[in-house]
Amino acid sequence: SLDLYGLSVIPMDNGMIKVVRSSVARTAGVPVADSKNPGKGDEIITRVVRMENVPVRELAPLLRQLNDASGIGNVVHFEPSNVLLLTGKASVVNRLVDLVQRVDRSGMQRREIVPLRYASAKELSDMLNNLNNEEQKGQNAPQLATKVVADDETNSLVISGTEDARARTRSLIGQLDREQNNEGNTRVFYLKYANASKVVPVLTGIGEQLKDKAGTAKSKTATTNSELNITADESTNSLVITAQPNVMNSLEKVIDKLDIRRPQVLVEAIIAEVQDGNGMDLGVQWTGKHGGVQFGSTGLPISQVKNGTIKGASFTGLATGFFNGDYGALLTALSTSGKNDILSTPSVVTLDNKEASFNVGQDVPVLSGSQTTSGDNVFNSVERKTVGTKLKIVPQINDGDMIHLKIEQEVSSVDASATEDASLGPTFNTRTINNEVMVHSGQTVVLGGLMENVSKQNVSKVPLLGDLPLVGQLFRYTSEDTSKRNLMVFIHTTVLRDDDNYSAATKEKYDQIRARQQQRLEEKKLGIVENTDNAVLPAYPKQDHSMPVGVSAPATTRNPFKE
């Protein structure tokens, strides 16, 4: 036998046989065999075997011990493809291939679903996986471990592994999935951001649906444990929940989704109004023995001139004339002009989907009724109307920081130039916008505006005489009024998602007030304003957000509002 002399035979492609030393046979162009041409006898061949269920790194050391001990055989494994390369005599290699296939078939893993009646699928799967991990430490066959996955929707377990491993896991599940003596389990959830009392109705509705779904899937013996109770403790802002394990797990996921930090919205409004007005009143009144010419819109009756009862406080502008016997004349002239510039910039911060209002103004008394009692006493009813700047908003943050904004904005004031009877109460100027807009965070948009030009001309005259050229001016009264008003309302929104955004917005407003105070201080030094004590806010403190959640700021942090 060639084997006794350390020689081996290698078949060639041309049908010839090559004899080489056994020590170099495995590197001397060994042909690759397969199941159709496996080779036979002492031929040197190489077989490629792919493993489906068993890791090659675990099986390769065993095969090396079973391979030809003469130095011809070799076993190499390739983990990425889970492939074995077996080289050696055909009789030995084919025997190893048969052994590998048997081991791979025995390691085949299958899956099965085990429904649970009482236990929680999630909690039980975590327990079983931890138990398997502990058992497999230090062992060389991790492929024999069972993998367990929980299905919360059906409260079932999906187990995979060998038949023996699955049987052992099923037995353990049967021992753990037993009816408990208590009626459900109770847990306390401490909320970080959400309001516990407002979350209760949401969880109750979801819990009832989950309980009904679970009740139809379980047996009648389990219906006694279907109690669901959700209570809010407002003092600790916590939820106390009593429910079945599967319902409890679902509610816990819902709580995690609801108890999140809600973003905030900074809304800044700009109300700009520019108003100009001009007026001219000019007229002549006459009186005589048997009558006269009088225009009521002058506010100065000619009869007062004749009676000598005219007072300076009864008219405005120029009033001059003469009275001689039964005849007299009165000339009145008045020119008016006015300008009104209003710039209001109210701002407010509120939570997402939370209404916020801003109101700066005063309550003005308004006479609503008057009656005289039997003793000639006058009893007046007075109501109060709030005037000033009002802003009410409800923001809703959508995808991409788009904000759906409901806004009610009003600027009102008492019209000091109104000429109505004072006994009827004051006249109010009101500018109101009720609107809904979509605006992107950081964007400024216009809500609405008004551009108004008003021109009025009133002429009172004596028929025929007032139409005469030149002389007709002495028998007429002319009043002209022109006014222009430009009013625009803008809105600017900013989404504040974290402390850094909020601190930056706060610092901007803080610095604006501080800069104005410093400006007044400089004006006082220059003598522009009176020398009074003007307080100036300290510089805005630096914010440190590097501390972990739940750790309070150190006691040495400076508070600018206490300085």
Low-pLDDT segments = 219-225, 547-563
* Global shape: elongated
Distance between the termini: 106 Å
Category by helix and strand content: alpha+beta
Number of domains: 5
Annotation, overall tally of beta strands: 23
Query: What gyration radius follows from the Cα positions, in whole Å?
Result: 49 Å
Summarize the structure.
The chain is of the alpha+beta class and 563 residues long. The protein is built from eight helices and 23 strands.
Question: Tags for this entry?
Answer:
22% helix; 563 residues; Ribosomal Protein S8, Chain: A, domain 1; membrane; alpha+beta; T2SS_GspD_CS; four-stranded mixed beta sheet; transmembrane; seven-stranded antiparallel beta sheet; 5 domains; elongated; disordered C terminus
Descriptive notes:
It is a single chain. This protein is α+β, with helices and mostly antiparallel strands. It has five domains: 105 residues, Ribosomal Protein S8, Chain: A, domain 1; 67 residues, 2-Layer Sandwich (Ribosomal Protein S8, Chain: A, domain 1), CATH 3.30.1370; 74 residues, Ribosomal Protein S8, Chain: A, domain 1, CATH 3.30.1370.120; 232 residues, no CATH class; 66 residues, no CATH class. Strands 13, 14, 15, 16, 17, 22 and 23 form a seven-stranded antiparallel sheet that branches. Strands 3-4-6-5 form a four-stranded mixed sheet, with helices on one face. Helix 5 packs antiparallel against helix 6. 17% of the residues are buried. The C terminus is likely disordered.
